Amino acid sequence: MKRTLIASLFMIIPAFAQADSAHPHWGYEGKAGPENWGELSADFEACHSGKYQSPINIDHAMHTTLPPLDFQFNVTNESIINNGHTIQVTAQGEDIFSLDDETFQLVQYHFHVPSENHINGKSYPLEGHFVHSNNDGGLAVVAVMFDLGKENSALTTILDAIPSEQNKEEAFKQHVDLKSLYPTDRTYYRYSGSLTTPPCSEGVRWLVMKDPITLSADQLEKFKSALKHDNNRPVQPLNGRVIVD
Ligand SMILES: [Zn+2]
Question: Ligand 1 center to residue 112 CA distance, Å?
């Protein structure tokens, strides 16, 4: 299970556009859109039959005492790609935090327009996903919501580096102040879910920051014109899952 997850994660990193039987074409519109993902390949079955899918609408969280997440933000960027599904930065280094007595390290981060998860029924203009992996390939995704407002300079560095060609991975060594892509208040919701893209593998620990941060209208336009289409999977049923905060 864990190996499948990490394999799925890396499947979307390499620059390939061609659809073949191993990597069927999927997207956000029409026949290849989210409502049909489960039928595109036997490997994507969880997209259709999974009961713990992401994203969700976060509502009625159960109050507990979640431990603070001790992010190190000590990473360097390696590369950036517009893979037709998202804008994704591959990272290396030591952005580690501990969760459930395991250590999770940042592997890549990417963006969805508009947000995939909703908070109390609200959709945000942009959502960042910081994908962390433990030694066994188990995944924890930290989600950050962006509302319209002040420009975010860390996003500008990323936007300026987006390759003009899709599926062309380019070196990206510029420093991005990761901390400014997170809210100052790090309280969060937690739930158990899945990858929000095929193969929709479950067992992903979702940590959704409660506080949104901002990007400017101009920055949002730049994301939209690079992506050319919305890239949010619709919210999925909770099926009895408990959200905690
Ligand atoms: Zn994502």
Answer: 6
Catalytic residues: 85
**In the block, which residue shows the tokens 């390499």?**
14
Q: What separation in angstroms does the CA of 54 have from each of 4, 83, 239?
A: 17, 21, 11
* 178 Cβ neighbours under 8 A, 6+ residues apart: 71, 73, 75, 95, 106, 154
User: To which residue do tokens 């909770």 refer?
Assistant: 238
Instruction: Say which range, 17-31, 46-60, 206-220, has the weakest mean pLDDT.
Output: 17-31
Q: Is the pLDDT of residue 163 over 80?
A: yes
| Low-confidence winner among 9-18, 111-120, 181-190 (lowest mean pLDDT) | 9-18
Compute, in angstroms, the gap from residue 209 CA to the centroid of ligand 1.
14
17 CA from centroid of ligand 1 (Å): 18
Amino acid at 129: H
Contact 126, 220 (CB under 8 A): yes
If residue 13 lies in a helix (H) or strand (E), which one and from where to where?
A: none
Q: Which positions ≥6 away from 222 have C-beta within 8 Å?
A: 159, 162
Please give the Cα distance from 22 to 41 (Å, whole number). 8
Ligand 1 centroid to Cα of residue 196, in Å, is: 6
Q: Taking the C-alpha atoms of 120, 159, 133 and 236 in order, what is their torsion angle to the nearest 10 degrees?
A: 30
